[in-house]
């Protein structure tokens, strides 16, 4: 009996020691110091410029992330020019560029020669060709430009640029129907991850 009791005590002691060893293994601690995390950046910088052979175009550069616009006034048959938007992701991570664009047209005051003609304005009389780099995005009347720009979506890597060029012209055969008319293009560029 004494032997059985001693055997049971030894078994209990061994189990107690094993429990302490398992407890010690399951509660091991390690320390890691000096860890840091830096978030990437997106920073869309847009620059707009424009030229005209004659007539007036006003190019309004807004702060980054706000509406750039172009106003066409006093254009006449034979006028032409270009509008360039240079977009740069000055950040260090990629983002998706989307564009929101609208165009608006005003008939202005109808003059005597204009009154004898069917109503037609700059929306159908300014022809445009929009390119992104070497890719033609849209060709046609200015009335379709907003939809073409608003349909654009491009991934921009960090520290990369995209250039949009709008070539515009009023054919020399256009007549009195555009007298006093104006056209405006409003464009907002967005870059999101």
Describe the structure.
The protein has 193 residues and is of the alpha+beta class. The protein contains 4 helices and 10 strands, in the order αβββββααββαβββ. It has helices spanning 2-26, 112-115, 122-125, 145-150; strands spanning 44-52, 56-60, 68-73, 80-89, 95-106, 126-132, 135-141, 153-156, 160-170, 182-192. The strands form 2 sheets. A 5-stranded antiparallel β-sheet has the order 1-4-9-6-7. It is rod-shaped, with a radius of gyration of 35 Å. The mean pLDDT is 83.
List strands and helices in order, with pairings:
Blueprint: H1 2-26, E1 44-52, E2 56-60, E3 68-73, E4 80-89, E5 95-106, H2 112-115, H3 122-125, E6 126-132, E7 135-141, H4 145-150, E8 153-156, E9 160-170, E10 182-192
Antiparallel strand pairs: 1-4, 2-3, 3-10, 4-9, 5-8, 5-10, 6-7, 6-9
Whole-number mean pLDDT: 83
CATH architectural designation: Sandwich
How far apart lie the N and C ends? 78 Å
What top-tier CATH class fits best? Mainly Beta
Which structural class matches the secondary elements?
alpha+beta
Order of helices and strands: HEEEEEHHEEHEEE
**Number of helix segments?**
4
Strand order of the largest sheet: 1-4-9-6-7
> What is the tally of beta strands?
10
Q: Based on CA inertia axes, which overall geometry fits?
A: rod-shaped
Low-confidence stretches: none
Largest sheet entry = 5 strands, antiparallel
What Rg do the Cα atoms give?
Answer: 35 Å
Quaternary class: single chain
Index terms:
alpha+beta; single chain; five-stranded antiparallel beta sheet; Jelly Rolls
Short description:
With 193 residues, this protein is α+β, with helices and mostly antiparallel strands. The protein has one domain: Jelly Rolls (Sandwich), CATH 2.60.120. The chain has helices at 2-26, 112-115, 122-125, 145-150; strands at 44-52, 56-60, 68-73, 80-89, 95-106, 126-132, 135-141, 153-156, 160-170, 182-192.
């Amino acid at each position: 009996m004494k032997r059985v009791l001693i055997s049971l005590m030894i078994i209990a002691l061994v189990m107690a020691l094993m429990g302490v060893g398992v407890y010690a293994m399951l509660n091991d601690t390690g320390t890691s110091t000096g860890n840091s995390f830096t978030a990437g950046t997106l920073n869309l910088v847009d620059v707009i410029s424009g030229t005209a052979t004659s007539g007036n175009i006003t190019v309004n550069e807004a702060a980054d992330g706000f509406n750039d616009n172009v106003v066409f006034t006093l254009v006449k048959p034979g006028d032409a020019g270009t509008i360039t938007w240079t977009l740069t992701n000055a950040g260090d991570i990629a983002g998706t560029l989307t564009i929101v664009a609208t165009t608006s047209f005003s008939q202005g005051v109808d003059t005597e020669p204009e009154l004898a003609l069917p109503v037609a304005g700059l929306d159908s009389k300014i022809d445009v060709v929009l390119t992104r780099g070497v890719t033609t995005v849209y060709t046609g009347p200015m009335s379709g430009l907003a939809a073409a720009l608003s349909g654009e979506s491009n991934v921009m890597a960090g520290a990369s640029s995209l250039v949009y060029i709008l070539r515009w012209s009023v054919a020399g055969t256009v007549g009195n129907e555009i007298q006093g008319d104006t056209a405006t293009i409003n464009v907002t560029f967005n870059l999101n991850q």
